[in-house]
Amino acid sequence: MSDLKTCFKKVDYDLAGLLHYVEIGDVGLPDIQRPFVWSNAKVRDLFDSMYRGFPVGYLLFWENAASAGAKHIGTGGKQHAVPSRLIVDGQQRLTSLYAVFRGKKVLDAEYQERVIEVAFCPREGKFEVADAAIRKDPEWIPNISALWSTGHSSYKTINAFIKSLEAAKGPISEDDAERISHNLDRLFDLQKYPFTVLEIAPTVDEEQVADIFVRINSEGVRLNQADFILTLMSVFWEDGRTALEHFCREARRVPGPGAAASSFNRFLEPDPDQLLRVGVAYGFLRGRLKSVYQVLRGKDLETGQFSPERREQQFGVLRDAHEEVLDLTNWHQFFSCLIGAGFRSHEMISSQTSVIYAYAFYLFGRKRFGVPEHTLQRLIGRWFYAATLTGRYSSSPESAMDGDLNHIKGVNDATGFCTLLENIMASELTNDFWSVTLPSNLDSSSARNPELFAYIAAQNLLSAPVLFSHKKVSDLLDPAIKSKKKALERHHLFPRAWLERQGITDLKQVNQMANFALLEWPENIDISDDSPAAYVPKIRDRYLDVKPLSDGPSREVEWKHMHSLNALPDNWQDLTYEAFLHQRRSLMAVIIRQGFERLQ
Length: 600
Fold this sequence. Notes:
Elements: E1 8-14, H1 15-24, E2 27-30, H2 40-51, E3 59-63, E4 70-71, E5 85-89, H3 91-102, E6 106-107, E7 113-114, E8 118-121, E9 126-129, H4 132-136, H5 145-149, H6 154-169, H7 174-188, E10 194-200, H8 206-216, H9 225-236, H10 238-250, H11 272-284, H12 290-296, H13 308-325, H14 328-340, H15 352-368, H16 373-390, H17 397-408, H18 414-428, H19 431-441, H20 450-461, H21 473-476, E11 488-492, H22 496-501, H23 507-510, E12 516-520, H24 521-527, H25 532-545, H26 555-565, H27 577-598
Parallel strand pairs: 2-5, 3-10
Antiparallel strand pairs: 1-10, 2-4, 3-5, 6-7, 8-9, 11-12
């Protein structure tokens, strides 16, 4: 006989009751969900549906037996330190309703406090997102939170609004006054809106809750192993979870003058689960999080038994790992590896996973094997360059990282670590890769192709001049420079309009990577839609007319050098488009290889 039984019960609430439980801290947000809220437009649509009397779905709560590891909605203290019910499904709705009805701030996806404002037009019974025009229009209540946060009765609020409207626009008819009163009363009555809540029993564990969530909520964020490890951190190591979130929050904030050191950088705005992966890789030498979740719960993977002592021991490993992961010196020294490899900012990053895993390898080299920093900088720069170029962590990243970490288990010292990474790179970046695979991969029109970013990184490493300019690519890609218009623009060497006149209209052909070069924007505008055969001789004459420096090479030599480092074939302007693309892909592959070898 099956021992399966229903693991939930149905409970009916009105909205006022739900908001009360949230406010006193009896209903809380579990850590297995990410703490972001809807856009104001989506909150507006929610209020409109409720106002019309439409159903807006049920809520799913989980009775909290663990007593720890849950977050409250909104900011500020709560009457109940530990919530007895956790929101599993419906967090966005309830958080949004709480924020509007109580006029409370909530934390958004960027860890910033945010106020949700929804406007209402009583004469029309219409909701809208408040803007400058609505805020000036007396027909609108620009923020409906004021209706409830003031504590005034509906009678007093309605009379005050009608008087304000008449003062601004003159007398209104009895019919309009009645319509306004009716619509505002209906808005006030949203506090009585009925909600059905399904409450999951406290005996159900996190994994079962996640399974329930996924089965009933096809539009929600699928819960993964990182979510559950973060939950365990909240239960058994709250300071660690808090430190992760603080680190991620600071990485999104540009520090002001005189500010203390922070995690802000030009490459990555990490999420807690990304840094968790670094800690797990460094601490447990595992790329897959699933087994680590069980280990952190205190499970012996051989016997299947759980013990508090084993759990505490494994959390000690995670604590030690995250001390290194969140160390600002380690963090910023790692990013200097990427800068040294020619990558200047997030705009040249095609895979955040490659960044995260490269950071784990940096920690291995610096902290576990004691590789000298000057050697490690070049090694990790090359490793990231190679991982990006080959798409090492693009598909099945956990499996690929697991394989790499298994190799590290056999390493004993700095020499062994360096040799391991060099051997892995050599096995991937063969002569066939450089001469056959890479040119083939450059046959793409993608604007975020990893090969394209590697090509630009190589130009930075080789001090390549901008095409038709004496300035360097690396100088004009400085992420610290902020202007209304980018200093460099991607320019069609064979202009699109000219190609279309030749009958080449397929954008995949027109926008080939090999048809682009970085130009200063004034030059880009001047070229317009002329053919290369028309515009190149004009630019060449102008370029050669400038006198060279007394101790420098001739302008003719500079012109050829500039073409070489921009991967342009001899007399490219006279080639057919198809021949040009074929030859330039091979030359771009040569530049990418030269950049990589510069890091040796």
